[in-house]
Amino acid sequence: MLMTTQDLLDKITQLPERPVDVPTAPPIELVAFVVRWNRGLRQWKTTTLADFARVSVSTVERIERGERVSDDALDRIAQAFGYEAGYFTAPRLPLSAGEAAASLVDTYSHLEIVPVAPMTTHRAVRDAARCEAVLIHRPEVPEAYDDDIAGLQEWLDLASFILSDIAEPPPSERGRRDLYNDILTCVGNLERRGLTVLSGVMPAPQDRLPDWKVAVVSITPRLTDPGAAKRRHLMVDRRVVALPSGPTTT
């Protein structure tokens, strides 16, 4: 039977309260919601998750319907998402309502949804270069790519300087196109080496800098994140783009 996300949420709200003094495993309905949410966030097909977790497609489907499966299968699913074994199965004391609310606030209240797209056009490069800072997010990218990623960072920093009001004389239209092509060549080299490069612009107003913007560049391996090319949004913690507070004067 097909079960929608709303069906799962309805079942979660109808669950009896867990004992506050006895460790228990997370209810399967909550596990189903978290698995489905994680898979959707990564733009993974059911078959992709099954491959990474080394379980059958029917096992993934059963989990997402809130049906019981083995602890081993749940541990494999957890590890496919980067969690530790036991994330879905280990008994734990439930959080109080206040603790749960505080946890949600700490996890989600600082997140900003940033539209992103593959960094394959002059416009994408221009938008990134027009920002005041660049944030590169590279989860699970091996150190072997460090030099190439540092090269992309340097190209973007150079483009930001050249396109700013500081550079004299301002670049010609042909000069800008050549600069954009050089950056896209750098991106293309990363793509040919098995990475996906996405970019977007995040408004990040600061004290006395209301127009401050940050270019968000996401670099992920296609081997472990095959759905990245279809991703259209990233969630970025606003705290990582905040400028350090300077000394106050009176």
TrEMBL record:
Could you list the residue ranges that cross the membrane? none
Quote the CDD domains the UniProt record gives: HTH_XRE (cd00093)
User: PROSITE patterns given for it?
Assistant: HTH_CROC1
Check the record and name the InterPro entries matching this protein.
Answer: Cro/C1-type_HTH, Lambda_DNA-bd_dom_sf
All residue ranges annotated as the HTH cro/C1-type domain in the record: 49-88
Q: Name one Pfam family in it.
A: HTH_3
What does the record give under GO molecular function? Answer: DNA binding
The entry's protein name is HTH cro/C1-type domain-containing protein
